[in-house]
Amino acid sequence: MIETIISRNLPDEFSGTYDMTGVQNIRRYRFQKIDENKTMYISESEFQFKGVMKWMEIMSFAFKKQTMKFMENFKQFVENEK
After folding, report:
1. What is the structure's pLDDT at 58?
2. What was the pLDDT predicted at 47?
3. How do residues 1-20 score in pLDDT, each as one tens digit?
4. How crowded is residue 17: how many other Cβ atoms within 10 Å of its Cβ?
5. 36 CA to centre of own chain
C-alpha cells in the first residue's frame, strides 16, 4: 500500500490517498470544535476500483462497517488519552 499525503492542516484537517493494486482509497478527516470539551470528527471516504477489483463495489457494506469500527477505535483512543 502506498500512502500519499494530500493535506496536513492539523488540527483542522488531514487528507490522503491509499493505493493498492486495483484500488484507490481517498480519505479526508476533518475536526470541528463544538466547545471546549467536544470535537466533531468527520470522515469522508471514496473507493475507486479498477480491473478485476471492480467486483468489490458490491461489497460496499463491508467498507462502511470497517470504517465505523476505525472511527470508534479512534474515538476511544482520543477520549482515553491523558
Report:
1. 67
2. 86
3. 999 999 999 989 999 999 99
4. 15
5. 24
Q: Is the pLDDT of residue 36 over 60?
A: yes
Locate cell 466547545: which residue?
Answer: 35
CA 27, distance to chain mean position in Å, is: 5
pLDDT in tens, 38-73: 889 999 988 888 877 776 666 667 777 888 898 899
Distance between CA atoms of residues 12 and 26, nearest Å:
18
Contact 52, 22 (CB under 8 A): yes
Round to the nearest angstrom and report the end-to-end CA distance of the chain. 32
Phi first, then psi, for residue 21 (nearest 5°) are: -55, 115
Contact 13, 7 (CB under 8 A): yes
Q: What residue has cell string 465505523? A: 68
Per-residue DSSP letters for 31-63?
EEEEETTEEEEEEEEEEEE-GGGGGGGGGHHHH
